[in-house]
Design goal:
The chain is α/β, with parallel strands linked by helices and 332 residues long. It has a single domain, classed as Alpha-Beta Barrel (TIM Barrel), CATH 3.20.20. It is 42% helix and 9% strand. The strands form two sheets. A five-stranded parallel sheet has the order 4-3-2-1-8. A three-stranded parallel sheet has the order 5-6-7.
């Protein structure tokens, strides 16, 4: 396999709309894309979406690992045809772990019928009152023990029925003061508080075998990183804490590299190179395919110029291949 094919395996990109064109297929081939992030703009109906997936996989002559934000409440991409569950905060106030596991089971069964094998959920962020509302109703609540228990139940329901779960946003976004979709925020909590309260749900998710973890575009100076360095670009937090100290062996995903927070880091390509150096395996680019091309080009250049190590690349590819083998069987 070529370097370009290896880098393509690390990209999870978004499609511009609900239709397939020759130009789109050509772009996906050039980028060697193997994973897609699905948005509402790609879905007119479940039936149309299923046809879209079949045609696209046929044109590319390969299976695609499809992922979607299917959290419940306001964060869903399929507006009809799938069961609508309440937001996590409502669930946290009203449901027990058994009910949440049933929710994960239903979600897995319905998503699988559409060809989706990764649910970018649950948020395991522990809510802090007064934080920016970007997370508020996406969190199971303010109690780390309850967040952990419900998150583990959701993960079990999803993964026992063939859909990978994603614990997000590491190392915890529940106290974020501003929306990272727009600007780069800093969480100024002391490290004992982060360790005790905000890392606890991630520890429980890892123990439960969660397949993927997503990091956050937020600065955590208590971790010892310099000011202005988000977790996305922090080897201390991603490789040192999540991978080595917490023992997570699955795939580590970035949040969308096109979010406003990372403009403080540099271009989207520069942010991707830093995220790779920090220890990420899969890079989400949800803006457009030109942004995906910029990431692809920057990563290829960084490996050719030895600014990134090839051994780490191969380790990432092995983790992604395990994810695909577990959740994306060779037959549709």
């Amino acid at each position: 396999m070529s370097l370009e094919t290896w880098i393509g395996a690390q990209l999870a990109v978004a499609l511009p709309g609900p239709a397939i064109t020759k130009t789109l297929v050509g772009q996906l081939r050039e980028l060697h894309v193997q994973s897609l992030v699905i948005f509402s703009r790609n879905v007119a109906s479940p039936e149309q979406f299923a046809r879209l997936v079949r045609r696209l996989e046929g044109a590319l002559e390969r299976r695609l690992l499809l992922m979607v934000d299917h959290e419940g409440g306001r964060v869903v991409r399929f507006k009809k045809g799938l069961t609508r569950f309440p937001d996590a905060l409502t669930v946290g106030r009203t449901q027990d772990a058994e009910a949440v596991e049933r929710q994960g089971t239903v979600e897995a069964q319905e998503l699988k019928r559409l060809g989706i094998r990764v649910n970018l959920a649950p948020c395991v962020d522990v809510l802090v009152e007064g934080a920016d509302p970007v997370i508020r109703d996406r969190s199971y609540g303010t109690d780390p023990s309850r967040v952990s228990a419900l998150a583990v139940a959701r993960i079990r329901g999803l993964q026992a029925h063939g859909v990978a779960a994603c614990a997000k946003h590491f190392p915890g976004l529940g106290a974020v003061p501003r929306d990272p979709h727009r600007t780069l925020p800093t969480i100024s909590l002391d490290w004992p508080t982060i360790d005790r309260a905000h890392l606890a749900p991630f520890r429980h998710a890892i123990k439960a075998g969660v397949a993927t973890v997503m990091s956050s575009h937020v600065c955590y100076p208590a971790a010892g990183d310099p000011p202005g360095l988000p977790a996305t670009c922090s080897p201390r937090l991603i490789r040192g804490l999540l991978r080595e100290r917490m023992g997570f062996s699955g795939a580590i995903l970035t949040d969308d590299l096109a979010m406003g927070a990372l403009r403080a880091v540099g271009t989207i390509g520069e942010a991707a190179v830093q995220a790779a150096a920090a220890g990420h395996d899969l890079f989400l680019i949800c803006a457009d395919l030109e942004a995906a091309r910029a990431v692809f080009t920057a990563l290829c250049s960084a490996y050719r110029e030895k600014r990134l190590g090839e051994e780490e690349l191969h380790q990432s590819l092995r983790r992604l291949e395990r994810l695909r083998r577990q959740f994306l069987p060779s037959d549709p």
